[in-house]
């Protein structure tokens, strides 16, 4: 029985006689008592389309899927309203409010992980592709995406290519919502050749009907949403293939308590295009026209409508037109070449993209390789014959005069290469696009995209750039590409509204967008972009400080937001600033004393004010054992190849000294998703009771953890076990915020640093000069007590500083990295209270004899559970007892062995008996006499005697405590004479209320005295620390133990609702096993 809140589910089997299939069913009862008399039998949604609702108040619907022959039950429900809205755009069937293809059958593959706030995972994406093939899907829509490091690369891209080119499934996806800067298309929609990437358009009709815009007095033409991502990809491909409407009012789930909702994004334009594709496929099937991704993609792109006022980087080939695409498919239905996909590459890229200053300032020649690709893995005789006989002639034309290409090109199977020449030297500043168009019989078959960025005419050494007064048409984007001077590390961008507040009658705010971006090798666009939205009032200005890297073209876009109304004019000024540091990161190590950084001022006379803080603490972890590689189940098998996916499972453990937040980091795997070499990686984090604490994926966030042990289970997946073998000993890091930041001292010389005098506060650097800056190692007293050798403290260094009289940050946003490698702790100082030790006067025989005795006692505690069960403990104890009948540690070991949690009523009398043996060997009067007077701290003999007496006292206390607990388990509350008597004896030596190692006795005492409130209060405090305070005591209690005891107290108090609540949450708070990935 699986219980989730108000939902009670029970697994049964039922034979579906009509279909002669064995279906697994679930009994679903939507009531709090789990009454199954009126339960609904449910099976996999795909089999019988069954669904239920968790409650009339929530209106939250669910379905189920059953896996692994009934061992895994998946209760499927929404992570948000996004998916329902997307499906409605494609295929809602509601008369006048229908979607684009209302007859289409929709299959929902949930890829948004609820634990991650609906973020997609590699596992869910891969399983969705597998199911798409199994279910015979014709077209996939993916309204998801992320920025990527490398376009058209990675495990997911290879699987998507198989889906499209091998299984003939058309794939449509959102291009991204990260515009208006160029090269902001996301993966996979905007970066993968096998997928049709769709940008988001808003028409004048949408502005009026969907957005209720008032456009009187202004001519608002159709345009792209300002945030719609723009091509090209980092390797020069289009990025955006087509455009479709990017907003809609359509259906949302019932739990939103409304019928429909307005949403916008390329998440909405993509399903619009997918619906159009569904219409074309439906018509092709009806008319018997051959269907292939190449044929349909080409029909859509060749017939798309170019929209006025928008570049090809924004709209791709243009607005999708179903009627024109259908006409194309009909006209070309007998042309077999339409089923050929042409793979175009320019070296390791898919186009020509000249963005950096050194690339766009010279004429260059490029080799273009074209490979004709037939259906992947199709080696049928007819297909092989077509490959052999394939020859195709192309007319090559260029769209712009600054590109040259041959007039003709003859292509055979196995591919060929031709050269093109690109001469951007005479192009004006801005972004320029061109294409080499390859046609056969007047029909475009493939193209070579070319993008050139020419920076503004600012000289490399120019630091202040005035972009002038900018007047905007509705939704207009103005792009500027700037050379970043050597030595610049940030820029201040000032934007000022040009209206005069005294003379302008319109004082409403204007929504202006500032978007800056630098594209660095092997970095996602998101890593070096800043996007700001400003509501500017007349004459008001704003200053934004933005990190930059010299040597890379910086795009600065200023845009009037697509829905902004009223004339918009702004003045924009950019000033480059910064200090260059060598090395550019501060790496301190224990014992180094500090590190010297040489700081240069390359741009102007400027004031430096170095500072640094350590703010984070990273601890390295290795797996507690070598990782285990195992094959996964049937839903992780690729249907066409029967190739199975494997998982590597790694387990890490660490201790939290106090409750707090931490971030698990796996640098080897994190930071990438679609472009990852591995199918997926996921971390699940648990406490000592196996309670789920949180999850970490490609971009981990903070997780709150309790005090005590924390377990991290990391799953990595791939169909090649050899790839997983490489990670079997992979290390990870645990990152925490320091409770208090550690400021580093800064000096102008090594001598000052070592003497700790004359710290460097501020100094002027002349242009072209440099100065040494010494960052001192942090003092040992400031290092967190829990730090161990190998830990690393991380933080940030700055060389500039804010000036209250000037706008802007005055320093590089994000600063420079500072790290400190923690070394061994210094030897502890000898305490004044440390007891002196006299000479060991024992003979060699006595030393050997006592060492053997202690070793034997120690081995008793190391016996396994099986050995103890077989009587080995009692056997050894009897033999040892004959030799050492009065040795207290031996007698205590037997007491501890007997005092178990199983069968307490049988065990308790034996515990009392064993405790009395221990107690009888100790003279309490002798102990009291010894501790009743002070001893000589400087006399070795006196100190030795005190240690011996303290050991005896500890043994006595433990024996009395175990005896008291045993009496508490034997006696009824009405007759607790022995319990109370023993407790009084114990209180002579310790205060059990002050030490939670004896919490079990306090709980027994309070329950017997019917002080249930006091017992409940103690339990609540112990639960907060997961029972950690009881460890090392006579009865260590886990969180599960404490929850059960609290439930008993609540039941005695008559709080039945709280008892039921505790019982339900106990399943989550202390489950029997770890949650599944």
Structure description:
- The structure is a single chain.
- With 1077 residues, the chain is α+β, with helices and mostly antiparallel strands.
- Helices cover 26% and strands 30% of the residues.
- The chain has 24 helices and 51 strands.
- The strands form 13 sheets. It has a seven-stranded mixed β-sheet with strand order 35-51-50-38-46-41-44, with no helix packed on it. Strands 10, 11, 12, 13 and 14 form a five-stranded mixed β-sheet that branches. A five-stranded mixed β-sheet has the order 18-25-24-20-22.
- Strand 24 (430-440) and strand 25 (443-454) form a beta hairpin.
- The longest helix has 31 residues, at 940-970.
- The protein is globular.
- The model is unreliable at 1-21 (pLDDT under 50).
Continuous helix count: 24
Average predicted local confidence, pLDDT: 92
How large is the share of residues in beta strands?
Answer: 25-35%
Q: What is the topology, as strand order, of the major beta sheet?
A: 35-51-50-38-46-41-44
Shape: globular
| Radius of gyration from the alpha-carbon trace, in angstroms | 37 Å
The largest sheet, given as strand count, sense and whether it forms a barrel, is: 7 strands, mixed
N/C terminus separation? 20 Å
- Structural class, by secondary structure, is alpha+beta
Uncertain spans, ≥5 residues at pLDDT below 50?
1-21
Q: What is the share of helical residues?
A: 25-40%
Number of strands: 51
């Amino acid at each position: 029985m699986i219980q989730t809140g108000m939902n009670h589910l029970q697994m049964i089997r039922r034979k579906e006689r009509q279909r002669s299939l064995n279906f697994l069913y679930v009994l679903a009862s939507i009531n709090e008592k789990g009454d199954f008399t009126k339960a609904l039998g449910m099976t996999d949604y795909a089999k019988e389309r069954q669904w239920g609702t968790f409650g009339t108040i929530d209106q939250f619907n669910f379905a189920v899927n059953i896996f692994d022959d009934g061992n895994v039950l998946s209760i499927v429900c929404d992570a948000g309203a996004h998916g329902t809205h997307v499906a409605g755009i494609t295929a809602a069937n509601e008369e006048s409010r229908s979607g684009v293809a209302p007859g289409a059958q929709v299959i929902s593959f949930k890829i948004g992980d609820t634990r991650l706030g609906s973020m997609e995972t590699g596992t869910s994406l891969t399983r969705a592709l597998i199911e798409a093939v199994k279910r015979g899907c014709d077209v996939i829509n993916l309204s998801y995406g992320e920025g990527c490091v490398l376009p058209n690369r990675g495990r997911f891209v290879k699987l998507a290519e198989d889906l499209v080119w091998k299984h003939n499934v058309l794939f449509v996806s959102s291009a991204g919502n990260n515009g208006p800067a160029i090269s902001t298309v996301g993966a996979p929609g905007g970066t993968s050749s096998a997928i049709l990437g769709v940008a988001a358009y808003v028409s004048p009709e949408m502005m009026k009907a969907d957005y209720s815009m008032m456009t009187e007095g202004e001519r608002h033409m159709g345009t792209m949403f300002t945030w719609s991502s723009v091509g090209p990809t980092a390797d020069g491909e289009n990025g955006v293939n087509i455009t479709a409407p990017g907003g809609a009012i359509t259906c949302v789930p019932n739990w939103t308590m409304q019928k429909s909702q307005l949403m916008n994004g390329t998440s909405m334009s993509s399903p619009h295009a997918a619906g159009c594709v569904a219409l074309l496929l439906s018509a092709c099937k009806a008319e018997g026209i051959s269907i292939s991704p190449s044929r349909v993609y080409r029909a859509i792109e060749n017939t798309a409508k170019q929209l006025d006022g928008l570049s090809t980087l924004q709209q791709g080939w243009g607005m999708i037109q179903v009627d024109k695409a259908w006409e194309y498919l009909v006209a070309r239905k007998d042309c077999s070449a339409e089923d050929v996909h042409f793979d175009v590459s320019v070296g390791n890229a898919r186009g020509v993209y000249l963005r950096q200053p050194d690339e766009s300032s010279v004429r260059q020649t490029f080799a273009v390789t074209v490979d004709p690709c037939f259906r992947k893995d199709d080696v049928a005789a007819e297909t092989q014959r077509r490959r052999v006989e394939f020859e195709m002639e192309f007319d090559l034309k260029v769209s712009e005069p600054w590109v040259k290409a041959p007039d003709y090109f003859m292509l055979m199977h196995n591919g060929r290469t031709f050269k093109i020449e690109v001469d951007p030297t005479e192009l004006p500043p801005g972004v320029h696009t061109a294409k080499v168009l390859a046609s056969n019989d007047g029909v475009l078959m493939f193209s070579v995209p070319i993008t050139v960025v020419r920076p503004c005419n600012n000289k490399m050494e120019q630091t202040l750039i005035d972009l002038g007064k900018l007047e905007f048409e509705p939704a207009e984007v103005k792009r500027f590409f700037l050379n970043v001077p050597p030595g610049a590390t940030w820029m201040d961008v000032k934007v000022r509204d040009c209206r005069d507040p005294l003379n302008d009658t319109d004082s409403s705010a204007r929504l202006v967008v500032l978007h800056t971006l630098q594209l660095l090798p092997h970095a996602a666009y998101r890593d070096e972009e800043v996007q700001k939205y400003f509501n500017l009032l007349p004459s008001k200005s704003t200053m934004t400080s933005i990190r930059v890297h010299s040597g890379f073209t910086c795009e600065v876009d200023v845009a009037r937001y697509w829905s902004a109304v009223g004339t918009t004019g702004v003045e924009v000024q950019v000033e480059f600033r910064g200090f260059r540091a060598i090395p550019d990161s501060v790496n301190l190590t224990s014992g180094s004393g500090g590190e010297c950084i040489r700081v240069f001022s390359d741009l102007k006379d400027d004031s430096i004010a170095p500072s640094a803080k350590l703010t984070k603490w990273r601890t390295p972890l290795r797996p507690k054992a070598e990782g285990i590689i195992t094959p996964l189940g049937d839903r992780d098998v690729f249907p066409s190849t029967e190739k199975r996916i494997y998982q590597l499972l790694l387990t890490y453990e660490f201790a939290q000294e106090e409750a707090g937040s931490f971030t698990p980091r796996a640098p080897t795997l994190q930071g990438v998703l679609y472009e990852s070499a591995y199918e997926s990686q996921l971390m699940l984090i648990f406490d000592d009771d196996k309670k789920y604490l949180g999850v970490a994926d490609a971009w981990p966030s903070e997780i709150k953890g309790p005090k005590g042990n924390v377990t991290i289970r990391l799953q990595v997946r791939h169909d090649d076990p050899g790839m997983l073998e490489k990670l079997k000993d992979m290390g990870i890091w645990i990152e925490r915020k320091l409770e208090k930041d550690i400021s580093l001292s800064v000096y102008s010389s090594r001598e000052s640093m070592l003497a700790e005098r004359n710290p460097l506060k501020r100094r002027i650097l002349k242009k072209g000069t440099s100065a040494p800056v010494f960052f001192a190692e942090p003092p040992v007293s400031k290092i967190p007590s829990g730090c161990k050798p190998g830990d690393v403290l991380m933080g940030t260094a700055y060389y500039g500083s804010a000036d209250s009289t000037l706008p802007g940050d005055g320093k590089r946003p994000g600063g420079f990295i500072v790290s400190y490698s923690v070394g061994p702790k210094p030897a502890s100082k000898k305490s004044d209270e440390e007891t002196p030790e006299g000479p060991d006067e024992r003979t060699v025989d006595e030393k050997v004899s006592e060492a053997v005795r202690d070793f034997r006692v120690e081995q008793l505690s190391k016996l396994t559970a099986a050995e103890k069960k077989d009587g080995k403990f009692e056997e050894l104890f009897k033999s040892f007892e004959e030799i050492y009948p009065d040795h207290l540690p031996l007698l205590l070991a037997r007491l501890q062995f007997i005092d178990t949690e199983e069968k307490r009523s049988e065990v308790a009398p034996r515990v009392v008996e064993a405790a009395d043996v221990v107690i009888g060997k100790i003279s309490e009067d002798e102990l009291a006499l010894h501790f009743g007077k002070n001893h000589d701290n400087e006399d070795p003999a006196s100190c030795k005697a005190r240690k011996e007496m303290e050991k005896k006292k500890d043994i006595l206390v433990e024996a009395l405590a175990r005896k008291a607990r045993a009496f508490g388990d034997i006696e009824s509350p009405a007759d607790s004479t022995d319990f109370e008597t023993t407790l009084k004896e114990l209180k002579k030596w310790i205060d059990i209320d002050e030490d939670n190692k004896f919490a079990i006795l306090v709980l027994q005492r309070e329950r017997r005295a019917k002080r249930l409130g006091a017992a409940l209060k103690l339990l609540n405090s112990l639960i907060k620390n997961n029972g950690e305070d009881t460890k090392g005591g006579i009865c260590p209690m886990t969180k599960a133990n404490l929850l059960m005891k609290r439930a008993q107290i609540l039941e005695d108090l008559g709080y039945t609702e709280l008892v039921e609540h505790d019982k339900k949450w106990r399943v989550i708070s202390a489950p029997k096993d770890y949650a599944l990935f």
